[in-house]
Design brief:
11-stranded mixed sheet, globular, 7 helices, Spore Coat Polysaccharide Biosynthesis Protein SpsA, Chain A, 26% strand, two-stranded antiparallel sheet, 303 residues
């Protein structure tokens, strides 16, 4: 079996952040979050990476991330473009929003020939998350035997306002039953609280497992993406042609409901860091300084 691949989704154009998160410096020597993610991935055992990017940022991305990573990993580039859809389908007039994370991974169709891990390019997942997912994928899972890394809710919250999280319902055998999206979760001194109506807040257990879009798949998942995109497209043209998205969690949920797959929930106690808004940047920068001080990361990742 070929060694597992890591797939980095980095095609976003940063509308809420105010810039390109995947090409923003966070580290002490100008490193981006992808640098830290792949440093952890390499230590876990990954040797090959596929970057999913937008063609508009090709040269800048190569200069900031790619040319350095090419010294340490086998690197491939895939371009997520609006018109990269099955033959016979058209991009609706006025659509500028990407087709979503499922479409991003589908763009890798011709390159996926081994079990693979999918991550967001603007998230920092922590060392143990990569160790867990690599160990699972490297153990030759059968087709349809997928995995996701579950994070403790309280280790994913922001001090800069509310967040949305996919709360996981896990069966007694450790496999995923479902993911329920809660759209308004806040951190308080009494623990995490959420609201569905904007008025009444209810408590959530701080150790509740949530999905942060770190998935492990076998190559057959690409077949399902290919099979399911056209029905998604036809429905999207009816209900929301300009903004509907083909999303990884929704696709996994459909496969679970159809009993075509199982998803092993892998647990990590590492803290997750992300940058939705510009106000999150100093928090992540300070966390990296502290982790560097503790010896988790070296001073200068690639020096």
């Amino acid at each position: 079996m070929k060694k597992p691949i890591i797939v980095v989704m980095a095609a976003g154009l940063g509308s809420r952040f105010g810039g390109l998160k995947q090409m923003t410096s966070f580290g002490l020597h100008g490193e981006g979050l992808i640098d830290y993610s792949l440093y952890d991935a390499i230590r876990a055992g990954f040797e090959r990476v596929i970057f999913i990017i937008n063609h508009k940022i090709k040269d800048d991305f190569h200069d900031f991330i790619g040319k350095n990573m090419e010294k340490h990993m086998d690197v491939q580039y895939v371009y997520q473009e609006l018109d990269k859809i099955p033959e016979g389908l058209l991009v609706p007039e006025g659509r500028y929003k990407p087709w979503g994370t499922g479409h991003a991974v589908l763009c890798c169709k011709e390159y996926i020939d081994a079990p693979f891990c999918v991550i967001n390019g603007d998230d920092l997942y922590g060392r143990s998350a990569y160790q867990e997912i690599y160990k699972y994928l490297n153990a030759s899972p059968e087709n349809g035997e997928y995995a996701m890394v579950g994070f403790q809710l309280d280790k994913t919250l922001s001090d800069n306002g509310y967040v949305s999280r996919g709360v996981c319902k896990v069966n007694s055998d450790g496999y995923l039953d479902s993911v329920i999206e809660l759209l308004h979760i806040i951190s308080t001194i009494d623990g995490p609280l959420f609201t569905e109506d904007g008025n009444e807040y209810r408590k959530l257990d701080k150790e509740t497992l949530v999905s942060m879009n770190m998935w492990g798949f076998t190559p057959d998942y690409i077949y399902y993406l290919d099979e399911m995109f056209v029905p998604f497209y036809k429905e999207a043209m009816k209900i929301n042609p300009l903004k509907a998205e083909f999303l990884l969690p929704n696709i996994v949920g459909d496969l679970l409901a159809q009993k075509k797959s199982k998803v092993k929930v892998l647990k990590t106690k590492d803290k997750w860091y992300g940058v939705t808004n510009a106000s999150d940047k100093p928090v992540v920068e300070q966390a990296i300084v502290e982790m560097t001080r503790q010896g988790i990361y070296p001073y200068g990742l690639w020096k």
